[in-house]
Amino acid sequence: MNREMEPLIPVEDLPQHIAIVMDGNGRWAQEHGQPRLIGHSAGVKALRRCVEACVKYGIRYLTVFAFSSENWRRPADEVNGIMALFVQAIQTELAELHRNGVNLRFIGDKQGLPSDVLQAMEEGEQLNVQSNKLTLIIAMNYGGRWDIMQAARQLAEAGLDITEQALAERMATAVCGPDPDLIIRTGGELRISNFLLWQAAYAELYFTERLWPDFSEADLLEALRDYAQRERRFGALSLD
Description:
With 240 residues, the chain is of the alpha/beta class. The chain has one domain (23-229): Decaprenyl diphosphate synthase-like (Undecaprenyl pyrophosphate synthetase), CATH 3.40.1180.10. Helices cover 41% and strands 15% of the residues. The chain contains 7 helices and 6 strands, in the order βααβαβαβααββα. It has helices spanning 25-31, 36-57, 76-99, 115-126, 144-158, 164-169, 217-228, and strands spanning 17-21, 61-68, 102-107, 134-142, 182-185, 204-207. Strands 3-4-2-1-5-6 form a 6-stranded parallel β-sheet, with helices on both faces. One of its GO terms (cellular component) is cytosol.
């Protein structure tokens, strides 16, 4: 690895869990004079680069916002194209992911998703590697408000008290790993857009102007270096 690309960050200062709002595919396509779906396809390549970098630097969990519960409002041809690309990406990338020690998990509302998407998700989760280096969690038809609501509904239907711990245990991400330490949003927007609302309570937020298809290993390292310089107090006073 090029010396300029080395993280030079102590392991204890690296996040265990990174979550990413992968924004900017459509604008990237527009800038390149291409249909929006070409931008989404380029976004898949960016995700591959990011996964490889996370494995390299020992990040244990990566959650990405692939399709939000609000994305259904987009034109039907774009939504259908995204769904087809999603299935294709799982089918073509799954073997390589497992060779690299990556396990797949999916979170989100499965109701309303096409049958081929559900089948691809099931197949992706069925294969697991023992030497798991990274858990890749893909948020599909996901919304943070939906997540909180479905957790509360589970408790209500079971007649259980709604406590912070009980809700946390029923969040969609509960079986996937710890809450994210670092949330990255590409594309220049300064919001998290209904992504992991509960889980992001104490996450560090990092925003970049870089459009997602252009997001590189160097961009990830810049975010990691920024994260390593922050003091996470979780509501307590500074240690200084």
